[in-house]
TrEMBL record:
Organismal lineage: Bacteria, Pseudomonadati, Bacteroidota, Flavobacteriia, Flavobacteriales
Organism (species): Lutimonas vermicola
Entry keyword Transmembrane: yes
Pfam families xref list: Transgly, Transpeptidase
Sequence ranges assigned to domain Glycosyl transferase family in this UniProt record: 57-237
Name used for this protein in its record: Transglycosylase domain-containing protein
Length: 750
């Protein structure tokens, strides 16, 4: 009997061994799917995210299929390696891919003692194999098949790579939740820094996440993450990487994050859309002539952009500071009375358009954007639509007028909830259009001291339209320079009638505008639509002596090893669209607008000391507010307005270009002025020639009876020198300013 039992046991053992051998052999032979060869392992490359950098190397975004950035072993802090080995594979430097002692322990505890918390027996190398190639589904055999594959691959990896290489590969492939792969991407996501700058306590947090990257996510579950971090410290102490004193010091530290999700909350997400479009076009050209095909999301490219990170941050702060305050005021305005009634009517119309009338009052927990951060509350569809309709939207663009490099690009108030880029929104230009009309006149030979009639007029041929100045004043004549700088409407309409419309239309098109102009006098006051993008291009021609730029976003594209694939050419020939004399005279007139006209708050309120040219704009009923400013090195433009122009402030106190748009530019440049590095770069004084300065030397306003007398007095002596004429003109202008009627006409104007 005993002999039979022994024979049965031996046969059973032999059969089991044979079956196990067949099982292992079938895996080697690929019965359960391909097992990667040493050659294939050697050629393995992670798909790597392409990095987008500012003009001085600051990371502003990524393009990826997998959010991963590979790093070399030299960039991994030793405390990070110690934490990983102590926590995940204490005998890592002793085994050859599979730790038989650890595996046996797990088998005994799991199969014999039925301990579910026995832990895993996988080494770091086995985990690397899993991260590299994933796991397949083989039904009830899934676990043994996948584990066996990982053991085979682990042995192969250990025979090919050094321990350091395997650790590097592992840390570049391991997931950290939130669609983040690899230690470098994780360091940027949770601590806003490169992995090489991680502190010991930060390294421990990330290594602690490897056990369960959601449960130990420090943003979602800080208590779990803190406890797990301290367990990592205990493991490091256990295996001699930390002293007890150092362990106690580290465990006493609070959990500190600097969370930075560039994909949803980055500093330039609207800008990244433009980068993606331009990069794809560039790569399409490169791939046609290159042996290697480069993929924007997988090839780990380095994209150096034109964006100035600091200027971008200053603009974002200006948005939050100013628009946060103005949004509160608009919300109060629409909380009661006739404004609330008009809003409610618009909400009902919008609900009907969106076919949401039946569910309008159904409440649901929704994320709500505010300038103090997002809040989550249970609100109805109706309330949600109402809140969105009241939102003040804005865009800001800053470009170098000499080469078209885009230095700042804020396309809206929040990319995640309001993804439409306001820089491309077509809105009424209002008085921001006037410099184009005046430029057209200057092109045809008009001069800043040419006088324009300011008498009230009713235009019978245009449905009895009666243009009015902002302050309702009328009478006398204004110089072209004063008419533009003080944004006078009646003189501007008269200037329109003095011109050939075809000349104005040609100027409009040559400056880069896409919409058609109507041949009617209201065009002079900005009823035509344009985008901030187009306006920035046009004003750049004013700043750079009359040349049309094309905005540039990308300076260079490199491979991860530093090889240049594309460089924006340094010297680009710009097309001339205005005479140099036109841009010079217009700039002198728009500098007057900032110095003493509608843009004067830039100096008086925001303390900008350098000379700038600029123009405000306020559309009908304050639906949109514009402000554009420039010098020879920077054009900065912004526009503010709700989605529908019918939602607006009641008066110019809050809704004018000088009140609603100018402060964004003012607050941005205020920060530039306080930055010793950026100040000389962006806030140098305008270069205005003596000739163009003299061309503005005439009284702003003059009575009809005094015009002839004024010029007779100045130029009656034909032999008078330029210098003497200038001096006499200044004295005459001073006398005119002292007259009582001057005080009457110079009230607040827009």
């Amino acid at each position: 009997m005993k002999r039979k039992l022994i024979v049965f046991f031996v046969k059973f053992l032999l059969l089991g061994t044979l079956l196990f051998g067949l099982f292992i052999g079938s895996i080697y032979l690929g019965v359960f799917g391909h097992v990667f060869t040493k050659k294939e392992l050697k050629e393995f490359k992670n798909e790597t995210a392409s990095l987008v950098l500012s003009d001085r190397g600051r990371l502003i975004g990524k393009f990826f299929a997998d959010n991963r950035t590979n790093v070399d072993f030299d960039h991994l802090p030793k405390e990070l390696i110690h934490a990983l080995v102590a926590t995940e594979d204490a005998r890592y430097f002793e085994h050859e891919g599979v730790d038989s002692r650890s595996l046996l322990r797990v088998l005994v505890k799991t199969l014999v003692l039925q301990q579910k918390s026995a832990g895993g027996g996988s080494t770091i190398t086995q985990q690397l194999a899993k991260n590299m190639f994933g796991r397949s589904n083989h039904g009830f055999l899934s676990m043994p098949v996948n584990k066996t594959k990982e053991m085979i691959l682990a042995y192969r990896l250990e025979s090919m790579y050094s321990k350091e290489d395997i650790l590097t590969l592992y840390l570049n492939t391991v997931p950290f939740g939130e669609n983040v792969l690899g230690i470098e991407a994780a360091a940027h996501r949770y601590f806003n820094k490169s992995v090489k700058k991680l502190k010991t306590e930060e390294s421990a947090v990330l290594i602690g996440m490897l056990k369960a990257n959601t449960y130990y996510n420090p943003r979602l579950y800080p208590e779990h993450a803190l406890n797990r971090r301290n367990v990592v410290f205990e493991q490091m102490k256990k295996y001699g990487y930390l002293t007890e004193k150092r362990t106690n010091e580290l465990q006493a530290l609070p959990l500190s994050l600097d969370y930075a999700n560039l994909e949803s909350e980055g500093p330039a997400n609207y800008y990244l859309v433009q980068i993606r479009n331009e990069a794809l076009a560039i790569l399409e050209t490169i791939n046609k002539r290159a042996d290697t095909v480069y993929d924007l999301k997988k090839s780990g490219l380095i994209i150096e952009t034109t964006l100035d990170y600091e200027l971008q941050q200053y603009a974002l702060r200006a948005f939050k500071s100013h628009l946060g305050k103005m949004q509160q005021q608009l919300n109060r305005q629409y909380s009661n009375g006739s404004d609330k009634a008009s809003l409610d009517a618009l909400v009902n119309k919008e609900l009907k358009r969106l076919k949401l009338t039946e569910v309008a009052d159904v409440k649901k927990r929704r994320e709500i954007f505010t300038w103090n951060g997002f809040s989550s509350d249970s609100i109805s569809v109706r309330d949600s639509v109402s809140a969105n309709l009241k939102l003040l939207h804005a865009g800001l663009i800053a470009v170098d007028p000499n080469d078209g490099f885009v230095k700042a690009w804020v396309g809206g108030i929040d990319f995640r909830t309001q993804p439409y880029d306001q820089i491309f929104a077509q809105r009424q230009t209002a008085s921001a259009f006037k410099p184009i009309l005046y430029a057209s006149a200057l092109e045809e030979g008009a001069m800043p001291c040419q006088y324009l009639d300011n008498e009230a007029v009713i235009l019978k041929d245009f449905e009895d339209w009666q243009p009015q100045n902002y302050d309702r004043s009328a009478g006398g004549k204004y110089s072209m320079a004063a008419s533009l700088s003080k944004s006078m409407n009646i003189p501007t309409v008269n200037l329109f009638f003095q011109q050939d419309f075809n000349v104005l239309n040609d100027t409009w098109k040559s400056l880069g505008f896409s919409q058609e102009l109507s041949d009617k006098p209201s065009v002079a006051l900005g009823i035509s639509t344009a985008s901030l993008y187009e306006m920035a291009i046009a004003y750049s021609a004013f700043a750079n002596a009359g040349k049309r730029i094309k905005p540039v976003f990308i300076k260079e594209i490199r491979t991860s090893d530093g090889r240049s694939l594309y460089k924006h050419p340094k010297a680009v020939q710009l097309d001339r669209v205005l005479k140099e004399s036109t841009s010079g005279l217009l700039t002198a007139m728009l500098a007057k607008a900032v110095r003493e006209g509608t843009g004067r708050a830039l100096n008086s309120v925001y303390g900008i000391r350098s000379e700038l040219a600029g123009k405000t704009g306020t559309s009908q009923d304050y639906g949109d507010a514009w402000f554009l400013a420039y010098n020879n090195d920077l054009v900065i433009a912004t526009r503010v307005g709700a989605s529908y122009p019918v939602i607006h402030f009641r008066s110019g106190t809050n809704g004018s270009g000088s009140a609603l748009a100018l402060p964004i530019v003012g607050k941005t440049l205020q920060q530039v002025q306080n930055n010793r590095t950026l100040r000389p770069k962006y806030l140098s004084d305008l270069k205005i020639s003596e000739q163009n300065t003299f061309a503005l030397n005439c009284p702003d306003f003059i009575d009809d009876s005094e015009i002839e007398k004024f010029f007779d007095n100045i130029f009656k002596d034909k032999n008078m020198t330029f210098k003497k004429a200038t001096k006499k003109a200044k004295k005459q202008a001073k006398r005119e300013k002292n007259k009582s009627w001057f005080k009457r006409v110079f009230g607040k104007k827009e």
